[in-house]
Amino acid sequence: MSTYCKEVRQLGFRLYAMISESLGLEQDYIKKVLGEQEQHMAVNFYPKCPSPELTYGLPAHTDPNALTILMMDEQVAGLQVLKEGRWIAVNPRPNALVINLGDQLQALSNGRYKSVWHRAVVNSDRPRMSIASFLCPCNSVKLGPAEKLIGEKSPAVYRNYTYDEYYKKFWSRNLDQEHCLELFRT
Ligand SMILES: O=C(O)CCC(=O)C(=O)O
Ligand SMILES: [Fe+2]
């Protein structure tokens, strides 16, 4: 377990470097700006459900953190993402991890990257498990769009805030309400 946590963290840092570059930022920009990172893990267990159409394993949400690395049950599907107004199943593949961009990368990229809406459905035949590793910014760092991505033609879409402020706001609402970042628009 501890090896997995360390490896996942390194994978996250490699992805940060690539995402930074893709935005025209210094390679170490995202890692630096997020500060001393916290890392949380959730082991989600979804029991089988006699009436799966009446409920969700997890209601629709975006992840409030920066990047989520998800290890999914290889036998049982359940994750869905919202694409162009439709829910699409993300079916498991052997030895594959699912990467979700969270709200902080949407904010940092000034909206160029989107934090995807996703949910988990249940089924009546089989229970399901997933293991989510959440890479989170340091609570006290100042977050918001990267300076370099703000200009006359692309004004800042979001204001600056601390992760502490964001996280409290995120959990003060229902998960499937409007995108939490909407509350941080300039
Ligand atoms: O179980 C899944 O596939 C999704 C889990 C998830 O979205 C989460 O833990 O935030
Ligand atoms: Fe999630």
Architecture overview:
The chain has 4 helices and 10 strands; from the N terminus they run ααββββββαββββα. The chain has helices at residues 2-22, 29-33, 103-108, 163-171, and strands spanning 38-46, 58-61, 67-72, 79-83, 86-89, 97-101, 118-120, 128-136, 142-143, 161-162. It has a 4-stranded antiparallel sheet. It has a 4-stranded antiparallel sheet with strand order 2-7-4-5, with no helix packed on it. Strand 4 and strand 5 form a beta hairpin. It is globular. 2-oxoglutaric acid binds at residues 42, 44, 58, 63, 70, 72, 78-79, 118, 120, 130, 132.
Topology summary:
Blueprint: H1 2-22, H2 29-33, E1 38-46, E2 58-61, E3 67-72, E4 79-83, E5 86-89, E6 97-101, H3 103-108, E7 118-120, E8 128-136, E9 142-143, E10 161-162, H4 163-171
Antiparallel strand pairs: 1-8, 2-7, 3-6, 3-8, 4-5, 4-7, 9-10
This protein binds 2-oxoglutaric acid and fe (ii) ion.
